[in-house]
Amino acid sequence: MNQPLQHTTVLLDEAVHALLGDGDAPAGTFVDGTFGRGGHSRLILQRLGPQGRLVAFDKDTEAIQAAARITDARFSIRHQGFSHLGELPAASVSGVLLDLGVSSPQIDDPQRGFSFRFDGPLDMRMDTTRGQSVAEWLADAETAQIAEVIRDYGEERFAGPIAKAIVARRTERGPIASTAELADIVAGAVKTREPGQNPATRTFQALRIFINAELEELQQALEGSLRVLRPGGRLVVISFHSLEDRIVKQFIAQHSKEVYDRRAPFAPPQPMRLKALERIKPSTDEVAANARARSAVMRVAERTEVPA
Ligand SMILES: C[S@@+](CC[C@H](N)C(=O)[O-])C[C@H]1O[C@@H](n2cnc3c(N)ncnc32)[C@H](O)[C@@H]1O
Question: What role is this protein assigned (predicted)?
Answer without folding.
Answer: Specifically methylates the N4 position of cytidine in position 1402 (C1402) of 16S rRNA.
